[in-house]
């Protein structure tokens, strides 16, 4: 599966546009991690637990988007974007979306 943020894939021809595909996940913060993040906020630096959590959420959203595209018969996804939104206090959604296409 080819995944790209641009609308065209160099050297490939889009023969069919199949439609919107998406994948999402909702993640909540952990109270213990919040305590460490608060301490890190005082001294500065990367909050590695949150970096890891967001990276895992992004990969899960991408995997779900790919599954959605495969179910439609796609072999590529173009125009991929990410967005986040707050769902409730301490929890956020990460959404990956793009256009499923068939390329040759």
From TrEMBL:
Coiled coil: none annotated. InterPro entries: UPF0145_dom_sf, UPF0145_YbjQ-like. Belongs to the UPF0145 family. This is UPF0145 protein DRP44_08120.
